[in-house]
Amino acid sequence: MVLKKITGRIYDIQGFSVHDGPGIRTTIFLKGCPLHCPWCHSPESQAFKKELCWMEIKCVGLEKCGLCLDKCPKDALSPGKKKISDVTKEEMQLVTINRSLCDDCGACTEVCYSKALYLCGTDYTVEEVMERLMKDAPFFEKSGGGVTVSGGEALSQPEFTIELLRECRNKGLHTALDTTGYVNYDVIKEVLPYTDLFLYDLKHMDSETHKKAAGVPNERIHENARKIAKDGGKLQVRIPVIPGFNDSKENIDAARKLCAELGDAVETVQVLPYHRLGSTKYQRLQREDPMPDCKRPSDEAIDVIVARLKSYGLNVNVH
Ligand code: SF4
Ligand code: SF4
């Protein structure tokens, strides 16, 4: 079969992933998401467009380089703050980006040899991704792993994701799809025959609270989970634990109730304690971290949630 030249916009391909489904996996992260959760640790996944990022730690400074300044057709780059170099201990001046002028054209990245400036988001054909994935196939086989398609919301690029999962299935690779569930069920129905496992977040069980935080209500998400279960799909339910937002006994009980409704379709429940690893990514995009003061929940608090879920007979793990 000749693969159609459908492209998907991808911001990362991560090999040797052990947290996105069983075994060793390669995870494909697609750009674009209909939700905007303030605890998101991949803010670069939210917009569908390609975005300019800048890593301060890699910039060698205007004294030694400054090549980017003349390259910008929009005059969006200018001298920024000064700092003492960690390496030479000399003062250096960094570059700053005026985001209201920058149109993410990427011209400056072509001259930034240290890769301080880079464009997040690359368009790949299914064929190109498959070529990359097949290099990892021996690891999948040995570990019981496979491919996970994630995002952003991978189903926001339905044509590409359907084709990619179908091709993985043709090659006999185990497939997982990490989805918000906030999509038209017709799309889910199309990927269902090629998806061994859905990684499915329950962020907050109260729809109003869900909407306030993530921008969308949760009814469609829950309804789609029920439909997946009814249509024979398998789920790993994931609960991101955000202190003060969704860690109450009532919310965990409501999540447990939905899992009970979904029955045998739920293979595992994964508890995901909030972490701060995404905070530097907000800096790279020069966006404010929406939750600068939120801390990782304590191990004791996570233990209580896990015990509560386990007491209802669920197979629970913590990532
Ligand atoms: S991406 Fe384009 S517009 Fe933005 S700073 Fe770089 S060169 Fe200028
Ligand atoms: S080209 Fe890159 S390394 Fe050089 S000054 Fe610009 S951002 Fe820094």
Mind explaining what this structure looks like?
It is a single chain. The protein folds into two domains: 12-49 and 122-318, Aldolase class I (TIM Barrel, Alpha-Beta Barrel); 51-116, 2-Layer Sandwich (Alpha-Beta Plaits). The chain has ten helices and 13 strands. The protein has helices at residues 67-71, 126-135, 137-143, 158-170, 185-191, 207-214, 219-230, 249-262, 279-284, 299-310, and strands at residues 7-17, 25-30, 51-54, 77-84, 91-97, 117-120, 122-125, 146-150, 174-179, 197-201, 235-241, 266-273, 316-318. A nine-stranded mixed sheet has the order 7-1-2-8-9-10-11-12-13. It has a two-stranded antiparallel sheet with strand order 3-6. Strands 4-5 form a two-stranded antiparallel sheet. Strand 1 and strand 2 (25-30) form a beta hairpin. The protein is globular and about 65 Å long. The mean pLDDT is 95. Bound molecules: iron/sulfur cluster (2 copies). One iron/sulfur cluster (SF4) binds at residues 59-60, 62, 65-68, 95, 111-112, 114, 116-117.
